[in-house]
Amino acid sequence: MRCPKCGSRDDKVIDSRQSRDGSSIRRRRECLKCKYRFTTYEEIERSDLRVVKRDRTHEPFDRRKLASSIAKAFEKRSTSLLTLEEMVDEIVHELETSGREVSSASIGAKVLEKLRAIDEVAYLRYASVHQRFEDVDQFVDAIHTLGRRIKTNALQRELFPPETTKGGSASIPARSRDITIKKNHGRV
């Protein structure tokens, strides 16, 4: 391995550790000439997975492109980078075990499936690009579709919380109800 500081090819490995998911090895190295320390990563070279685009052109699969498109959907959302990486790892693993060629539509479908379970807003953002929403009605339809499904994650907030129409709310004076509504606006 060439030293990034002096260019020497003589180094020694100081420390080797496996990543959490076991897919790569992190190595700390020290240059024997200038004593500079640097990190390298070793991982399995994947088979050349090809993506078939909508216009029938082919291109090599790019994990970074997938990760950046998902990151855009999660932008300004309270989702950890670790969750994003785990999601990308799961999708890449599914794609690699499915064959050498995969359509961009099936990649998008897998991403939407994972996003739907994690974050509904990120799901809508990604769906709007992947499914090429052209007007507000398509957004509304997608939101209504999300509203009809049963929640699997108790920690995920409702996109449209059900309105409380229990018998007790009618006896509360209108002014008190307005104060409560203002107090809870935007919160679940």
Describe the structure.
A three-stranded antiparallel sheet has the order 1-2-3, with no helix packed on it. It has a three-stranded mixed sheet with strand order 5-4-6. The C terminus is likely disordered. It is an alpha+beta fold and 188 residues long. Helix 4 packs across helix 5. The protein is elongated. The longest helix has 18 residues.
Q: Widest sheet: strand order?
A: 1-2-3
The number of distinct helices, counting runs of at least 4 residues, comes to 6
Low-confidence spans: pLDDT under 50, at least 5 residues? 167-188
Give the tally of structural domains.
2
Number of strands: 6
Largest sheet: 3 strands, antiparallel
Report the order of strands and helices.
EEEEEHHEHHHH
Proportion in β-strands: 15-25%
Helix content: 40-55%
Q: Give the structural class.
A: alpha+beta
Straight-line N-to-C gap: 54 Å
- Average predicted local confidence, pLDDT: 79
Shape: elongated
Radius of gyration: 24 Å
Could you give a quick summary of the protein structure above?
With 188 residues, the chain is of the alpha+beta class. The protein folds into 2 domains: 11-43; 50-148.
Lay out the secondary structure:
Layout: E1 11-18, E2 24-31, E3 37-43, E4 50-52, E5 58-60, H1 63-73, H2 81-98, E6 101-103, H3 104-118, H4 120-130, H5 136-148, H6 174-184
Parallel strand pairs: 4-6
Antiparallel strand pairs: 1-2, 2-3, 4-5
What keyword list fits this structure?
elongated, 6 helices, 3-stranded antiparallel sheet, 3-stranded mixed sheet, 17% strand, 6 strands, disordered C terminus, 188 residues
